[in-house]
């Protein structure tokens, strides 16, 4: 399997976060590298994390990303989030390990005007 992505950068804008990263140093010798993003909402102490759930919107998508950037929208204001970016390939499902992920914790600030959809 590949190693973790590197140089993860997060940019928070009210209740959305942009993540950008660089490809892993090792792709595991395969060309079928993609990225999965895991979103967790955490307590003030960074513990008691739980999945973000269906209300969060990922653009272009959350799983099987080919590129090295993603936008996450519709987050709750004043909330701690931890995002994990996993580098995966065709052999990863058999053995995804913590060494394949890089993570960042951010805190959203107050919500701007919400667009009515």
UniProtKB/TrEMBL annotation:
Spans annotated as Disordered: 92-117
Presence of the UniProt keyword Phosphoprotein in the record: yes
Chief place of localization: membrane
Keyword terms, alphabetized: ATP-binding, Cell membrane, Kinase, Membrane, Nucleotide-binding, Phosphoprotein, Receptor, Transferase, Transmembrane, Transmembrane helix
Membrane topology of the entry: Single-pass type I membrane protein
Enzyme Commission number(s) from the entry: 2.7.10.1
Cited SUPFAM superfamilies: Fibronectin type III (SSF49265)
Stated name of the protein: receptor protein-tyrosine kinase
Cell location: Cell membrane
InterPro entries assigned: Ephrin_rcpt_TKs, FN3_dom, FN3_sf, Ig-like_fold
Keyword Cytoplasm found: no
Highest rank taxon of the organism: Eukaryota
PANTHER family cross-referenced by the UniProt entry: EPH RECEPTOR A5, EPHRIN TYPE-A RECEPTOR 4
Pfam family, one: fn3
Species of provenance: Xenoophorus captivus
UniProt biased composition (Polar residues): 102-117
Domain Fibronectin type-III: 1-111
């Amino acid at each position: 399997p590949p190693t973790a992505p590197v140089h993860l950068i997060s940019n928070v804008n009210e209740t959305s976060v942009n993540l950008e990263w660089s490809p892993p140093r090792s792709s595991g010798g395969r060309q079928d590298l993609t990225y999965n993003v895991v979103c967790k909402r955490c307590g003030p102490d960074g513990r008691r994390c739980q999945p973000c759930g269906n209300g969060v919107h990922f653009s272009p998508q959350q799983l099987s990303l080919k590129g090295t950037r993603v936008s996450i929208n519709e987050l709750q204001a004043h909330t701690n989030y931890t995002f994990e970016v996993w580098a995966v390939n065709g052999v990863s499902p058999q053995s995804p390990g913590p060494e394949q992920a890089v993570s960042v914790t951010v805190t959203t600030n107050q919500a701007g005007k919400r667009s009515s959809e």
